[in-house]
């Protein structure tokens, strides 16, 4: 059942209580308004919601093993209905939501130029990230091959060589390592310049 019909039923319960000058069983509300499509428990739930909102709108007495057995109107019942009852509360809540949604829909949207600038910045950031990942991968691969080469030269060749030949090879490997390091430094410097250029473009 929608909140609209629940609010309407609550008001009808209060109006029914006003029309009577005595206490009546809660079962009477079930017979009058909701039989046979809903249960007595649903009527009790609606009355409990009325009580939770304002316990002075109905005079409720327990009995026959039930917390809510007999009902009657109170002096506040008429005043509440005169102010619009639960239907008025429902309308105010809906108006509040309409106002909130209206504020959301009036939130300023990005202009065409702002959307282009945002897209450009996102694209530049993606290029920077891809370039950086590519550089790190290249450096890692280059360094790995250098280590493998040195390891292969020193440990994986079992033939015996004269001391001077061994020293020559060690010096050769040192020079190769220095060249590789210089190459890596140059690549890093070049990449740094490219990143700075992209950063300036983005700004």
| Helical content (DSSP H or I, runs of 4+) | over 70%
> What sort of overall outline do the alpha carbons produce when their principal axes are compared?
rod-shaped
Number of domains: 2
Runs with pLDDT <50, length 5+?
none
Annotation, overall tally of beta strands: 3
| β-sheet strand percentage | 5-15%
- Summing up helix and strand content along with how strands pair, one would put the structural category as mainly alpha
Largest sheet: 3 strands, antiparallel
The H/E string reads HEHHEEHHHH
- CATH homologous superfamily heading of the largest domain: Winged helix-like DNA-binding domain superfamily/Winged helix DNA-binding domain
Instruction: Round the Cα radius of gyration to an integer and report it.
Output: 42 Å
Q: Which architecture of the largest domain would the CATH scheme give at its second level?
A: Orthogonal Bundle
* CATH topology annotation of the largest domain: Arc Repressor Mutant, subunit A
Q: Average pLDDT value? A: 77
Distance between the termini: 57 Å
């Amino acid at each position: 059942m929608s909140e609209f019909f629940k609010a309407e039923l609550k008001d009808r319960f209060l109006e029914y209580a006003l029309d009577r000058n005595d206490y009546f069983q809660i079962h009477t509300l079930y017979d009058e308004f909701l039989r046979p499509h809903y249960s007595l428990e649903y009527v009790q739930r609606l009355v409990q919601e009325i009580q939770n909102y304002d316990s002075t709108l109905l005079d409720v007495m327990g009995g026959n093993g039930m917390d809510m057995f007999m009902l009657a109107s109170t002096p506040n019942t008429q005043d509440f209905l005169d102010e619009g009852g639960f239907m008025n509360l429902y309308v105010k809540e809906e108006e509040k939501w309409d106002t909130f949604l209206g504020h959301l829909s009036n939130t300023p949207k990005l202009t065409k130029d702002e959307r282009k600038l945002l897209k450009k910045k996102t694209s530049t950031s993606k290029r920077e990230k891809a370039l950086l990942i590519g550089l790190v991968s290249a450096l890692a691969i280059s360094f790995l091959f250098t280590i493998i080469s040195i390891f292969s030269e020193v440990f994986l060749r079992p033939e015996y060589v004269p001391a001077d030949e061994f020293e020559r090879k060690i010096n050769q490997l040192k020079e190769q390592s220095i060249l590789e390091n210089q190459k890596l430094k140059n690549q890093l410097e070049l990449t740094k310049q490219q990143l700075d250029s992209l950063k300036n473009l983005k700004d």
